[in-house]
Amino acid sequence: MAIRLTEINSEGQALQSGLDVFISIPVYDGEYLSYGDSFIVATMASATDYASSTVNYASEVISSSPATDPNVWYRYHTEGTSYPAVAAPSSSISILSIPGVISGPQSHSGMYQKLSGLITGNEYQVTINFHQDTLEGNLSFSRFYYANENPSTAIQTAVTVYELPTPKITFSFTASSISDIVFFDYTTDRFSSICNISSISIKEKNDYQMVVVTELDDGNMCKVLRSKIE
């Protein structure tokens, strides 16, 4: 028994709207991190540097040297009291370098930046490219944000650790505020090591709906339609 299609005619043409089949395509666009590539000496040399002395180095850094200005780098390093002394991150032509040492505990050195224009709850993708001469170590990522009910105390998200060396790492986060602070920290188990970064990018994820099409035997294309509205 033949089934009569009331929404599509015998030539495959839709007789009413709502029959198109769509797929979602993720597209990452916009750039939310400033000075994340094309590094020069001044990129880090002009950044505020803080020497940390306590065990809770990340919270100490954010509270004692807050990222008050958006879209600029801040940097930090441990100075030998709780963790080994190490230099702060530096930059040269096309390279951002973060040093690391170990002498009992590991040193901590890194940089952070207050973003702007984020949409709370939206997803953002972080892409970090490394130079080939990056040595063994771990690059950690977390974020700080200020909750509305407690605007004076920054809340740190979970810390994610990525093992180096590797050519590239890519990961995503969901914005907790319109101005999350991204926090990068480098450590190593080597006596002396360095993390050399060629670029860092943060882009917003957007999902675009595209109509599904198929190729016919004669080489032409046509849309894929539902047989009925669901």
Helices, strands, pairings?
Elements lengths: L21 E8 L11 H5 L2 E5 L4 H8 L8 E6 L11 E3 L2 E7 L7 E6 L8 E8 L6 E10 L7 E3 L3 E5 L3 E7 L6 E7 L4 E20 L1 E3 L5 E3 L7
Parallel strand pairs: 2-3
Antiparallel strand pairs: 1-13, 3-6, 4-5, 5-13, 6-12, 7-11, 7-13, 8-9, 8-10, 8-12, 14-15
Report on this model:
The strands form three sheets. Strands 2, 3, 6, 8, 9, 10 and 12 form a seven-stranded mixed sheet that branches. It is built from two helices and 15 strands. With 230 residues, it is mainly beta. The protein has one domain. It has helices at 41-45, 57-64, and strands spanning 22-29, 48-52, 73-78, 90-92, 95-101, 109-114, 123-130, 137-146, 154-156, 160-164, 168-174, 181-187, 192-211, 213-215, 221-223. The protein is globular.
